[in-house]
Amino acid sequence: MSEDKQLVSYCYHSFWPDREKVTETFKPLVDALYSTIVDDSVGPELFSDGEQWFSMNNAIFLHESIENDEKIGDLAVQVCKKYAKGPNHVVPLPLWLRNSFKQAGLEKVLQNRTWNWEKFYREAVFSNLTTMDSKSRDTLVLHAIDLHIKEIDSLLLCHPCIPTKGGQLQHVRNLVNPTGKVACLFEPKEGRLLDGSENDFRSPKRIQRLLELGMANDHLPLEDITEKAGTINKTWSTDKNKAFVHLKCLFELMKNHTDDKDSHHWKTLRTTAFLPAYSPGDAKMEGNVTLKKPTDVFSDKCSLLVNMTQPVLDNSNLKIHHSDPVLQILGVNSTPKPEVVLQQLHEGSKQAHSIDRSMLYKIAFECYKCLDQWIWDSGNTSYISQQVNSFPFILIGDTFVNVDRVAENGQFEAKPYLHVLPAAFTSFRNLWTCIGVEKQFTATQFLTVLQELKAQHGNQPLPESDLSVVLTILNKGIFEAKVKIMHDCLIPNEHGVLQFASELFYNDSPWMPLTSGVTLCHENIPRAMARHIGIKTTRHHSLETHIVDDMSPFAFEFEQQEQLTVRIKNIISAYPSKKDILKELIQNADDAEATEIHFI
User: Fold this and answer.
1) Is 90 exceeded by the pLDDT of residue 557?
2) Which candidate, 357, 490, 379, places its Cα nearest to that of 433?
3) Which of helix, strand or coil describes residue 4?
């Protein structure tokens, strides 16, 4: 009759006995009835959900805590009825009937057919999140968060069930607190920022629960940090300020993972171009900034050692100290090799005209200091000494000059050809000794300058400035320093043209006419200097040209008959001034290249 719908609808347990109300005499009969109802093999179809009749094997009961829950009890029943998988059916189980089964000794059987919170959420809720209406879904998920049940927490972690600002459902561990430190790294469209209001998912209580379950707030896994570092390039192309904000946040987050140095994510970060760096050649570090791999970048600590040839970390916005362990793990270079420092000086020498003088000095000072220390630490001098002679190495003023144009000390300078090492650099003794900087200017250096000027001007008169340099070298460098010249030296002639000393004469007999072919040295060269550097005098030249080689056989040598002492006395008496006698004696001694004079 029920199948033919000839009966008025009624609740399936309307005629079932309540064991507590039955007398002791009939309780065995009631127990037998309930045992028959739950029998697996012969259990009659006495349960109904209002539409179908079925046996105990196909009945699902909800735990009393679910049925009696004022907030979601009714919703839970509706969801169970809708999503329970056939041939199972959800039926109500009033308390008196539940107690009757228990009193009949059938509690275990009843328990096997009862869904508690964990089974309800696993079977009815989390398996049907995508098809459930959002209001019911969110209500049930919020309730699951509030339950604080370990098994349900596991379900919350295993399923994407939390709504985000992108409209997607997300796993709890992929959620980001929109008010947390890491929120700046995420866009709503990524589907990771927690959605909702203070009345639901974003209430303080729910946010705290989600944080306990793993929602990101002030920390991120290294995997996520690596992923976000890979997006910096895209952000950089549209908004550099925003990119710097992201970078600062990433560096703070990386500090939480410095103990995990062996993670493969660090390796990925080292090869990801996400660090802002000044381009090579930007000495003031004020120009173009591009993104580079950490292993290709040098720390700003050593910027003066590398910035002409290598990218340098832009720390002006990052505000991260060069000794930060994060930079070390990322592989940012902090100690350049000698060859890199030498490249810096080489490039600086080529661009000296375009670099601010004070900056040029700082670069040179730091490079010399670094190389000096490296020589001291390693004891290796051959590499640097070989390299420095290939380019102008020493900074003098605002330009670089070759090593062979510099001496550590000197009574004079012959700029722009010879220079004294600046006082600010003299402390780098290891370096200067290694590369062969002379203590004092040498004859070789002097002669090299003279030869260079000869090659430059040829048979043309020297400009006034170069002539002054030459005279300074000859006077202070060679004559006053008593430097012996072993080779024929170039000397300016009377017209200011450089010629070899062997081709010139000093005119010490101006009252006599010059012999044809005689070229005089420059007028500013004194007789003593001329004689020191090998210039002949016109007086000697005249005597040499009047020597008779073939005398007549009838000629005889003329000899004085006057005694020598008498002759000398007469000569002295004939001098108009006594003091001129001493001058003449000194002059004669000098002509004879004497070093001492004895008066008796």
Assistant:
1) no
2) 379
3) coil
